[in-house]
Amino acid sequence: MKHLILYSAALLLLAACNNGQTNELLQHKKWKVYDVTLPAGTSYNHVQATQAEDLKKGYYSDAYYQFLDNDLFIATISGVPDSGKYSLLSNGKIISITGANGSRNAEHMVEVVKLNEEEFDMKVNTGEYHFILRTRKQ
After folding, report:
1. Using one digit for the tens of pLDDT, what is the confidence trace for 107-131?
2. For a FRET experiment, which of 5, 65, 86, 95 has its CA 20 to 30 Å from that of 23?
3. Euclidean distance between CA atoms 34 and 121, whole angstroms
4. Can you name the residues that pair with 114 across neighbouring β-strands?
5. How many whole angstroms separate alpha carbon 15 and alpha carbon 84?
6. Beta bridge partners of 74
7. Are 74 and 99 in contact (CB under 8 A)?
8. pLDDT tens digits, residue range 56-87?
9. Which residue, among 8, 52, 5, 60, has the nearest Cα to 32 in the 3D structure?
């Protein structure tokens, strides 16, 4: 029993460290979308490939994301900012993005695929398809 308690405490500490590391890498940067691709291992689907290219050239052609203090999230699309709240889940591997009031009624979940000081790739769901938004620090 004592070992189980110590093991659980170690897992909680590790999870807090992973969330902290993810948050530190995300915060106070302006992440600009430069590419929209299909997830690795996705079987080729002409409609999905075309939609990824259209999103890259259209909706995401001028898109930025910022993660700030107090869990503030700002998405700027075509020069129009929108804010909300974010929280890290699953040891910093999932980001929950909600409205400014924190309501989960309009929650969006993104999976962190790659994150370092310069690059942040996230898996997003658009309609029935998944895409990887590739971003770079500005």
Report:
1. 899 999 999 999 999 999 877 889 9
2. 5
3. 10
4. 121
5. 24
6. 66, 83
7. no
8. 999 999 999 999 999 999 999 999 999 999 99
9. 60
| Amino acid found at 21 | Q
pTM of the model: 0.82
Residue 87: what are its φ and ψ, rounded to 5°? -145, 150
The two tokens of residue 93 are: 């591997």
* Distant-in-sequence, close-in-space partners of 26: CB < 8 Å, separation ≥ 6: 67, 95, 115, 120
* SS3 at position 44: coil
Q: How far apart are CA 96 and CA 109, in angstroms?
A: 5
DSSP conformation class of 70: G
Alpha-carbon distances of 119 from 14, 29, 33, rounded to whole Å: 23, 11, 10
Model pLDDT, residue 45: 84
Tokens standing for residue 19:
């969330």
94 with 123: CB under 8 angstroms? no
C-alpha torsion angle, residues 100, 101, 106, 112 (rounded to 10): 60
